[in-house]
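Ticket #4471: structure export looks truncated?
Reporter: QA, pipeline team
Priority: medium

Steps to reproduce: submit the single chain below to the structure queue and open the exported record.
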Amino acid sequence: MQVSVPTSNGLLLDKYGKYAPKEAIYNKNPAISFPIEITDIPKEAKTIALTLLDFDSVPVCGFAWIHWIAANIPAASTVEIPENASQKGGIQMIQGNNSTAGPLIGETDPLTTQHYIGPTPPDKTHDYWLDIYALDSKLDLKEGFWLNEFYHAAKPHIIERKRISILSRA
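Actual output as written to the record:
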């Protein structure tokens, strides 16, 4: 699989993260998800899933920050996840909880907890890991699933996994 997202000078475009315009912010978080193009998807794949994690957040908050989880995206030879798909749709998918949903943050608004929240690195440029999974079936998950539930459900169905690094500036 090949995965591409829009960048400029090696960095995620500002409108998808910390420097998003005010109209792109919801509940104090960047809310417009970046578009993703996935090509060369294995023919046997039935669905696509994605995770967007920030491991550079560990020294800041003590754990890898979950920015976005989505699953059950219908597979084809090419999949284009449009800009702002997390909030506006445009593609069939279910979304899991991000780190704002956990007890440390305690957010309860599902428009925040179960959607993309963009990078806001507080200390330095962070490396965000976008993992794309080609799966041989639809996963038995419901909206608001947790990352561990995704990993358990996906594990026996992974055909291919592609990881790319996306840098976002502080």
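Status: closed, not a bug. The export was complete when the record was re-opened. Leaving a note from the reviewer for reference: The CA atoms of residues 56 and 126 lie 6 Å apart.
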